[in-house]
Amino acid sequence: MQSIEVGAVSGSALRLLCASFVAAASLGAPGWAIATEAAAATATDAVGTATGTNTATPAGPADDTGLAEITVTAERYVSTIQNTAISISALTGDQLISQGVTTIQGITQEVPGLSMRFASPGLTEYEARGLASNGGAAPTVGFYLDEIPLSPPAVSQSGKVVIDPELYDVQRVEVLRGPQGTLYGSGSMGGTIRVLTNEPKLGTYEGSVQATGSDTQGGSGNGSANLMMNMPIGETLAARVVLSYLYRSGWIDNITVHPFPISLNSPSFTQPLNTLPVTNNYHDANNETLYGGRVSLLYKPSEDFSILGEALTQSLHTGGYDLLDGSPTSAQPPTVLYDAHYEPFPIREGIRDDISIFGLTVKANVGIADLTSATSYFGRTGVQVQDASASIYYANLGGTPFVPIPYAERDPSHQISQEIRLTSHDIGGFHWVAGAFYSNLNSVWNEIGASPLAATPQVPDGSFFTSWNAYGVRQTAFFADSSYKFTDQWKLSAGVRYYQYKSHQDEFSWGLDGPHNTPPPQSQITTAQNSGANPRVDLSYTPNGDLTLYATVAKGFRPGGANQILPPPNEQPHCQNGALEFGPDSVWNYELGEKARLFDNWLTINSDVYYIRWLGVQQVITLPCGYQYYNNAGNGRSFGPEIEIDAKLAADWTATFSGAYTDAKLTQPNASYTSFLENVAFEPDGVTRPCTAGTKCEVPIMNVVKDTADVSLNYATTVGDYRVTGRAAYAFVGSSYDVAYYFGYKLPSYSLVNARVGLGRGGWDAALFVDNLTNKVALISANNTSFQFNEPQVVRYSTNQPRTAGIQINYKF
Question: Up-side HSE of residue 179: CA atoms within 13 Å toward CB?
C-alpha cells in the first residue's frame, strides 16, 4: 500500500483512527461510539485547535476551522446532522455542483443503504434498507419536493417511479433512512428523500447560469443549460425563476433483424443474434431531452408571517429505454450480453414524463408555536411504448400470426394534499410537533396493445390487451411528535401517527390476453381499506458536544390495494387466479447509532446498525402467462450496519467514505407464496432449488443491493485570486437479485469511477470531468418494469451511461 502524506494529521492520530476502525468492525455501532469517544479524548493535540461542527465535506476551499456544517429540518425544526439523533444524510446545493451531481440517481452513490431500480430517466424507483418497492401500489421510500409529497402512479406497470427533477438551485437534499411514518406518512416505511429548493430572497438581485457540454463513448454529444434569477419586488415580495434544458445522447441501438428468431436458445438455433441480417437500425435510440421551469413567489411582511407559492413544470422525453439485451439459458447471469436491443419490427420505444406541481405554504408565529399550512397539487402523465412482437407467448397466442404488436401505456395521475402542523418554540428542553394530513391520489392505468393484422372473429378489434383502470387512494392522518431533554445529557423523543386509507380500482379491460375478449358492459370495482397507528420512540445520550449515542424503535406501514383481474384459467392455462386485493404491510425498525466528532472536528464518524421486522411483505407475483399481480407473501427481515466518515486530512484535503451492508430476506413465506415458489426456479446461493411447503425457506428480497461503498478524495485551495479544486470518487455496488421470467436473476457487482478538476475566479468556475472513467457496463436491474414482457429467451437489463467526458461552466452574478 502506498503511503499518503496527510499534512497536519500525525502518525499517532492515524493510529488512533485505525483503532477506531477496528473497534467498529468488531463491536458494531455501540463499540464504535466508545472507541471514537476514547480517541477524541486522547488525540485532540494531534491535529490542532480547530473548532466547528461537521456534517459533510465543504464545497469551497478548506481552512483551519474544521469541517463544514449542514443545517437540516428533517424533524420539522432547524437542527444539524450531528445534533439530530436519527440516521440522515444531506448534500447542499453547492456540494451537488462541485461533485457534478444533477439527479437523485447520482445521490444513491453517496448515501449508504439507498439503492435504485430504473429503466430510463423518468422511470426510477428507490429502496432503502432492503425494503424493496417491487410489490404493492405504494412506494417504500417517500419523496418530497419542499413541502409537497409526490406519489408515483398507483397501478403503473413502470413500477413505483418518482419524478427525476433537475437538481439546480436547490438548497439541499436530505435522505432519511428507516421508517419515517410519524412525520412523513405511509410511503416512508423505508425512508424519505427530501429535495429542498432555494426560496426567493427579499431585497436582493442575484442570478446564476450553468452550461455543460460533454461526449459519451459509443454515443455522441450532450449538453445542458440552467438559469436562475432572483428578483425583489418591493420590500416584502420577491420572485425566483429557474429554467433548465438538457439533452443526453443515446448509446444503445434498436436494431431490427429478419428473420427474427423465436427461440434464441433452442437447439435448432445456434446463430448469435447480433450476426443476423439487419433491416433497420435506430442508432443511439435512448436519447433524452428535458425542459423544465420553476417559479416561486415569496411574500414576507414580517419575520412572523410568510406566504410562499411555487410552481414547477417539467417535460422529459426519451427515444428508448436504457436497456440492453441479454440471452440467458436459465435463471443465471447472462452468458451473452449484447450492446443493443434487437427487434423483429422497427417500433420505437419512446417514453414521456410530463409534470406539473403547484404548492402554497403559509407560515405564521401564533405565539406558543409556529403554524405551517402546506397545500399542493401534483399532476403527472407518463407515456411509454414497447414492442411486444418478440414475445414467444404473444407470437403463438391462439395461433395468431407473428405481427407487429406495439404496446402503449399511458398513466395520468394527480394528487391534492393538505398538511397543517404546529411546531413549538424550544422552551425548557421541551419540543413538540402536531398536525393533520390529507391526500387524495387518482391514477389511471391505460394500456393499448392491438394490431389490425391480428383481428379474429373472437376479438374483432385485434386487441391483445386494452385497459382503462382507474385507481384512487384517499388518506387521512393525525400525528404528534415530541422530545424532552430531562438532563443535560439525556433526551427522550416519542411520536405517533394515526392513519386511515381507502382505495378502489375500477377495472375495464379486454382483449385476447384479457379477462374478456370484447369490452365488458361495465367495469368491475374492487376496494381495500385499513387504519392503524405508527409509533416511534428514540432515546439519545450526549455526554459532550462531540458525541451522541441513540437508540430508536419505530414503525412504518404501506397501504394495501386492489389487483387487476387475470384471464380465466380455461382461456389462459398458465394464469392462476390471483387475489383481487392485498393487505398493507408494515415494519418495526430497531436501531442503535452514534454520531461523533474527533480531532477538533477534523473527523466525523456517523454509524448505525439496525434490524427490521417486515410483516405481510407485499411482493409481485410473475406468472408464466406474462401477467403480474400483488400479494402478501409472508414475513421477512432486513438488517445491517451503515457508516459515513468525513475527514479533513490537511488544510486543503478532505476525504469521505460511506458504506452499508444489507441482508434482506423473506424468512416466513405464507402458503400462497410457497405454492408459487414451488413452480419456479430461483438462485439465492448459486444453486437452483425449489421452495416447498413445510421446509425452511429464506428467499432473497428482490432488487436489494447487498453491499455498497463510496470513497472520495477532495482538494480545494486558492492560488492568488484563483480557486483550484479536484475530486476523485470510487463507488462500489454489490450484487443483487431480480425477477423476470425466472425468479432470482443474480446481478453481478460493479464499480464506477468519476474524476473532476476545477478552476474559478470571482463569480466564474469551470470544471473538466470524466464520469465512468473505466467505461464500466453495469447491470443495474433485470426486466425492471413489469411493462417489459417476460419470456425465457431474452432478458433486458438496465445499464449505466458509458464513459462521458466534458466541461461545465458556472457563473454567479
Answer: 34
